[in-house]
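Write out structure tokens for 3-oxoacyl-[acyl-carrier-protein] reductase.
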Amino acid sequence: MLSGKVAVVTGSGRGIGAATARLLAAQRARVVVNDIRPEVAEDVASSIRNQGGTAISVAGNVMEPEFPMKILSKANSEFGSVDILVNNAGFTWDGMIQNMTDEQWDVIINVHVSSPFRMIRAAAPYMRDLGKKELQAGEAPKDRSIVNISSTSGLHGNVGQANYAAAKMGVIGLTKTVAKEWGPFGVRCNAVAYGWISTRLTRSTEQGEVVEGLNQTVTQGIPPHDPEKLRQAVPLARIGTDEEAAGGVMMLVSPWASYITGHTLEVTGGFGI
């Protein structure tokens, strides 16, 4: 379905990002895998190649201002101009409002809003500008697609996540604006809002998942939860898998979504309806 397409997926060394990279590659996209840890990114890229797909890894921190140009330039030199950009990288740093520090706020806004903005801005020569040239040549612009990752926390708010909720709502505003500005040049921009997906952000804090690359250790996850309460909150009565989460991205970047832009797809099992 994606034969000939070039896809960049940030934060794709694990979880939803890794599942997304593998799914896009299975549909014959040439994929650029990213993680802050080189060996983690390369493990995913290697697994794709072992399955007959095409992938390279580009390690780096999406919050570093120069990183977007680095990864997009590498994608272009290896595979050609980028057709698909998935802004997936992110993590949580929770705290009640009265206890939340400026650093907590700034870091989460950076990784979930500012970093996608910089990635999209850096992608302009490879996506928007090429579409403009195609139009000027009297051709229909090629279908190019951006997907930003949001959350039900952004749609509904969540206790202990003022920073994360604000960021995940903010990226929806960014998504709609890109859709309006770049739509005339054939670039679609959508968001996926995830609910309860089994990742390090939703697993129990007892598992000891942490974020790397910060000045301090930030534990990921949530306090141990009651499975029965989960079943009551989610109409499908279960947690979603990484692969199911990746399916939402695949839907939006596929040719079948060629007239869908500015949309937020809820992949939640019905949570929040």
